[in-house]
Amino acid sequence: MESLLSALKAAGEETRLRLLAVLNYGELTVTELTHILGQSQPRISRHLKLLTEAGLVLRYPEGSWVFYRLSDQGHSADIVSAVVSMLPGDDLILQRDYDRFLQVQSNRSEKAQNYFSSNAENWETLRNLHIADSQIESKMLKMLGDREINEFVDFGTGSGRMLELFGPRATKAVGFDLNAEMLALARMRLEELSLTNCQVRLGDVTLLPLQSASADLIIIHQLLHFLDDPAAAISEAARILAPNGLLMVVDFAPHEIETLREHHEHRRLGFSQDEILRIFDDVDIMSQDYVHLDKRGTKLGPSDSLTVTIWSGVKSNIAVLNPDTQSKQLSKKQKRSI
């Protein structure tokens, strides 16, 4: 009763109702909300603080920015949904707020597209070296099968393509990346597709703010070759995976194209089958399947192209270790790996 009254009191004010209405369209920063509502930043921040404390709004820091979105957890989500559904659709103030939201969304889209355009040449050069993305994604969907997904986590989400592809299959999906420009592109795409169950966050994939044994599906797509310690990312995936949860790793097989280090910031020139399976074994991931894909459809591609490998594994159905024991075990295993 106390939490319900607190939530209703927080929502029961005109500016805060307007904030809930706007956040129903998507997650926004304080600066964007200030522009939409036409109020000062301190005032908007104060109202957001009250909504956050009441559990109606969630707050996600991202570098120097902070994103806000409506609560999607427990009773708070039910209260928010009920309040927003009762707002009058013909209210002139709410309509004006929506028009300004569309303007903010358009500006965000323009910035994201400019970033995409400035980097498109490099991405296209890399794509030309390996089999079509559509064929890789088709294999991934086949490997997933009809598995039920409650929570899906995408490591190194980039432009959000994996969320776009697998998000509709999940109850909840979140993608993490360290590139704010790529996250802006991903947000734009998710909004265009109305994938409200999907969100993206700034975060280090070796240390994520997620509960252990919570995810049914984790995908690490074309990320490991950028990392100093790929084994640490797989270890973190193993921590987050629920028993019998599925991990899919997509990356390059060993190659000798040194220009990828010079021009594309690749730290590693691919991964062997034995290397990935050894890391899987170290963190209690049971290898399930793998497939090599290249332009000729054979095990080994030509020297001037890249072979893409998809590894899948299932988290062992064992008792979850306590945090202290698990931390020590992962540290030991990471030292034994790459």
UniProtKB/TrEMBL annotation:
It holds the Pfam family Methyltransf_11. PROSITE patterns: HTH_ARSR_2. Residues 1-91 form the HTH arsR-type domain. GO terms for molecular function: DNA-binding transcription factor activity; S-adenosylmethionine-dependent methyltransferase activity. It comes from the Bacteria. SMART domains: HTH_ARSR. This is MoxR-related protein. It comes from Candidatus Micropelagius thuwalensis.
